[in-house]
Automatic annotation (TrEMBL):
Official protein name in the record: 4-hydroxyphenylacetate 3-monooxygenase oxygenase component
Residue ranges of every copy of the HpaB/PvcC/4-BUDH N-terminal domain listed in the record: 4-269
Chain residues that bind FAD: Q152, A153, D154, R155, T189
Transmembrane feature ranges: none
A Pfam family assignment: HpaB_N
Superkingdom, taxonomy of origin: Bacteria
Organism this protein belongs to: Azorhizobium oxalatiphilum
UniProt xrefs under Gene3D superfamilies: 4-hydroxybutyryl-coa dehydratase, domain 1, Butyryl-CoA Dehydrogenase, subunit A, domain 2, Butyryl-CoA Dehydrogenase, subunit A, domain 3
Gene Ontology molecular functions: oxidoreductase activity, acting on the CH-CH group of donors
Length: 492
């Protein structure tokens, strides 16, 4: 099934329990805190279902139906590239500002499915649940989010050692029908407008944490699932002209609380096994595929920010200054490096059984460097802009006052844009660089794939140290103290 925007939007009117500002949200699709983001996701579904995008966005499944390429299991380098083209086109619709657009968790579940034998070795019943779920989610074109982190409380203690044993979501009961889960998870980005959530734990669990070792997926309207939304930037910034990003791409992040939620066995992919919960990400292509998607998204977003940088200098008449050109050159090289990493992940990809998997170490190198890069890029944009992003009308309402509108026309001048164009551009630039929405994005890019020490740990573990060591050893082997002293000793 290939959903339209309308079909997806309707699917969200399902009685889910979202709490915002102390109240229960009755309809996420019309609520002023979320409707802009919901409409943006609807546009993505419309794009994928447009007949002219059929080849770009969809593929034929083994049963002869079409599905979005986000669910595809590439068998070759060429298929991986073709899948990337679909993901890139989709990302351009939101310029990379929907971090957990439907392609992220779909890539994770597809990656888990590519490693189905790991689940089969663990428990054939759980492997069947995963395989059935992959096909179900794909064939119903579901938008999935995930919560894979236990809530922050005392990070020096394990999940079981926290004061409240059900702070982190854990199993409280089980019977022939399934498991019952109680406790919280952070942070369901996009959870308010996803169809289902994949719940598990990616942080290393300790012996004694077995009840937190779970892996399952459930609909967002499951009884007992409470979605505790963060502050809505969209609600605070309803004008598209004033805040073109906050008003339309605030995907939201929510704490999920599982209030004795019943999960049927056919939705449970792992349980009780600390080992399997780790393996589902790292012994299958899941972690690689989900984060490969994230780097594709980031490369689109960085190109968008680079274009803002260039436009800023044109608007301000500074492009010709050598120092400014140097800054733009540096920025463009940094942005190109992320695209280069995506190409390298693909070019160095390897066959894993029937599937083609992007290179793990190239991915972790990209993640390590791009976590540091994002903040630097924002800072460079601030440096190029000066006060232009601040010297702006207070809101679109200023244009309703003829006297103020005239003064705006007089004071907003540029060699490359008229007053309205200049204001329009700088409001967008500020929303990308300096608004509360932008600040949350800086936090997102630093943390969505784990704290930096975690990501660097992956880079350390997967680097081909032997190859590097071989070069060093060859050099060391090419000389010795004995060789150096030999002529003198021979002459003695
Ligand atoms: C905007 C945003 C959206 C997110 N969306 C999602 C989502 O959709 N789904 C999801 O599951 N998660 C999501 N997350 C959570 C994200 O995965 C975590 O923030 C990330 O894994 C880091 O975990 P943490 O926040 O608990 O930080 P912590 O693990 O508490 O780390 C914070 C800092 O504490 C220090 N620290 C902590 N532990 C150690 C240690 N052992 N050794 C050394 N230093 C340490 C480091 O300085 C570290 O940077 C999101 C986070 C953000 C900010």
């Amino acid at each position: 099934m290939i959903k339209t925007g309308q079909q997806h939007t309707e699917s969200l009117r399902d009685g889910r329990q979202i709490f915002l500002d102390g109240a229960l949200v009755s309809d996420v699709t019309t609520h002023p805190a979320y409707r802009g983001a919901v409409a943006s996701v609807a546009r993505m579904f419309d794009f994928q279902s447009a007949p002219e995008n059929r080849e770009l966005m969809t593929f034929e499944t083994e049963t002869g139906t079409r599905a979005n390429k986000i669910w595809q299991l590439p068998k070759s380098y060429e298929e991986l590239k073709a899948r990337r083209a679909g993901l890139e086109a989709w990302t351009e619709l939101h310029a990379g500002f929907l971090g957990r657009a439907p392609d992220h968790v779909a890539s994770c579940i597809a990656g888990m499915y590519m490693g189905l034998e790991v689940f089969e070795a663990y428990d054939p019943a759980r492997a069947k649940a995963l395989a059935d779920y992959y096909r179900y989610a794909r064939d119903n074109d579901l938008y999935l989010t995930y919560v894979i982190i236990n809530p922050q409380a005392d990070r020096s203690k394990s999940a079981a050692q926290q004061q409240d044993p059900y702070l982190s979501a854990g199993i409280v009961d089980r019977d022939a029908g399934g498991i019952t889960v109680r406790g919280a998870k952070m942070l369901a980005t996009g959870g308010i407008m996803a169809n289902e959530v994949f719940v598990t734990c990616i942080q290393p669990l300790q012996p004694g944490d077995e009840k937190y070792a779970l892996s399952f997926a459930i609909p967002m309207n499951t009884k007992g699932l409470k979605i505790l939304s963060r502050k809505s930037y969209e609600a605070a910034n309803p004008s598209v002209f004033d805040n073109p990003l906050s008003s339309r791409f605030d995907e939201n992040d929510a704490v999920l609380f599982f209030d004795d939620v019943k999960v049927p066995w056919d939705r449970v992919f792992a349980v009780d096994s600390i080992d399997m919960v780790a393996k589902q990400f790292h012994a299958t292509p899941a972690h690689v595929y989900q984060n490969y998607q994230a780097q594709i998204r980031l490369s689109v977003k960085l190109k968008f920010l680079l274009a803002i940088a260039r436009r800023t200098t044109e608007i301000n008449g500074t492009t010709g200054f050598p120092q400014v050109r140097e800054t733009l050159g540096q920025l463009s090289a940094e942005v190109a490096s992320v695209e280069a990493f995506v190409n390298a992940m693909e070019a160095k990809g390897t066959q894993r059984g029937p599937y083609f998997v992007p290179d793990r170490n190239m991915l972790y190198a990209a993640q390590t460097l791009s976590q540091q890069l994002y903040g630097r890029v924002l800072n460079t944009l601030r440096e190029l802009a000066g006060g232009g992003m601040i010297m702006l009308p207070s809101s679109v309402q200023d244009y309703n006052n003829p006297e103020v509108a005239k003064l705006i026309g007089k004071t907003q001048q540029s060699p490359a844009a008229n007053a309205e164009e200049k204001v329009k551009f700088y409001k967008l630039a500020w929303d990308a660089v300096g608004s509360e929405f932008a600040s949350r994005h800086a936090q997102y890019e630093m943390f969505y794939s784990g704290a930096s020490f975690v990501v660097k740990g992956h880079a350390f573990r997967t680097y081909d140290w032997d190859a590097a060591k071989g070069i060093l050893d060859k050099m060391l082997d090419s000389y010795s103290l004995a060789d150096e002293l030999a002529p003198a000793r021979a002459a003695e």
